[in-house]
């Protein structure tokens, strides 16, 4: 028994799915996962996990895993050695860069990969390939929230910790569905609400699980959140209920902001949003009466033409009511992927070095130039959205993308896929042969988190280490190893032998990571940035100062942008989002038996009113058509949705066409985040039941 026991290995890891950042032990024997065991020491989740963290790991041993590099030969892919694949990539990238300039190549990073891998990838783009054309998928989700926060309070991240949310008197959830998207975080809210009298308000198109429990649930018309947010600020000022001392001591721009609210009266707000004046006053009063308010939001706010402005309006409201800098207060844009926060933090963004220092700042650039021994480009690069446009206008000739299924997760996938067809050269690095890989010239097999070491940063800016459970599958390699090998072939002289050395370099260059080290992150330890050199972390931001030179926050006037109209013919509004069991495009969860067994198929939620009007029954097969494409799906009639509003899960479920066949290429004008939540569709019944 002792012998057998000794073959069982217990390894601490961090969940590969959502931004909550649960950590747990994986019990394994050879290549088999015996169980997933959370431990009390886990800083975020303690002994909890959700279904994905518990059952979502079979994909690691899936026979679909890429085990060798592939090179396109005409319409086919043939297996190649690493030597051959890297030779082709370095030759082609050099050729294209020399002929069309460094900015003719785009680099797309991965929010599923580690901080160290993202750091290395932006270093590859900037230092080796001499371009700032590097971005990650936060462009598709929370960049509007980060930008709204940078404008108002200075740092584009959650202002407190997940545990802290439980200390709020009032939690306001806007355009988010934490019970399915951030389950363990939602459990904390449910507990605080049930046991400690915390008040819960949900504002959402869909009656989601938290909305059902809420003390107040408000259903605005699609795309009108900014209006009610501004109206509540105005009402509080009009009643003299703003936090006068906080505004006087800690906030700039109060008068100008107040004036900007003039048109946002209760009457106007009620007319535009469909929320009654009484409900608005009730919410304003609840916010005023609570000592500590935090606001949580996600894609329902950000994925609109005015996503950045609405995020700004949320932060403005928190400032007006003095809800920053104390436990149980603040802004919580909920991060989607396990490392979408970290990918941005570590510099895979076109305008920022690691730690959000601008590439245009000569002093900052000089620091990196000295450390890396190169001259760096000054001009901010293209973001993901601009890369697609640049392919069509002939400026972008090649792309290198890792751990991102952009062909189906970017909006308007027909358009994006047509762009990929036009690329002269395309490298895709992933664990599976994704839909995006079908457009590649070279596909490189990468290793997921269980097959390497690294760190992830969760939604609350907490950095945690994960350790290696298995050897990389087949000939696959950790992404950081691949990036380093390629960089060295292209003239760099990198010699990182472990991710800890990459982190040490990032810590030496980016002030917000100054005190982060693998030693301090050992085991269950974690650090929440900014971390000073002596290791002092910052769980709550803005306790004394906001992150601007004068230490004061800024109220920023914002106006409503009406949502995109698809035209009269497209008479139904299609909302979309996550499901508890599956994750995003589904490449990992569909390959995890415990999960697909439970939820094998997607569905479209249709309201009882609409179902009756059109004679549609549960299980009917319908076709949705938008100006951009078509999707076939089965119907679930439910009062989760109302009237002419539909809800479709955003997963692609194997061969089913994903929601992004329907979405448009329109986007938030500030961040270029697509307006995924503003689709008009028409619905035809193909099979009545
Ligand atoms: Fe993983 Fe998120 Fe579930 Fe935690 S809540 S186990 S991080 S998917």
TrEMBL record:
Protein name: Formate dehydrogenase subunit alpha
Span within the parent record: 253 to 941 of 994
Recorded family membership: In the C-terminal section; belongs to the prokaryotic molybdopterin-containing oxidoreductase family.
GO CC annotation terms, alphabetical: membrane
Organism listed in the record: Thermoflavimicrobium daqui
Domain 4Fe-4S Mo/W bis-MGD-type: 8-64
Needed cofactors: [4Fe-4S] cluster; Mo-bis(molybdopterin guanine dinucleotide); [2Fe-2S] cluster
A GO BP entry: respiratory electron transport chain
MF annotations from Gene Ontology: 2 iron, 2 sulfur cluster binding; 4 iron, 4 sulfur cluster binding; formate dehydrogenase (NAD+) activity; metal ion binding; molybdopterin cofactor binding; NADH dehydrogenase activity
UniProt entry keywords in alphabetical sequence: 2Fe-2S, 4Fe-4S, Iron, Iron-sulfur, Metal-binding, Molybdenum, Oxidoreductase, Repeat
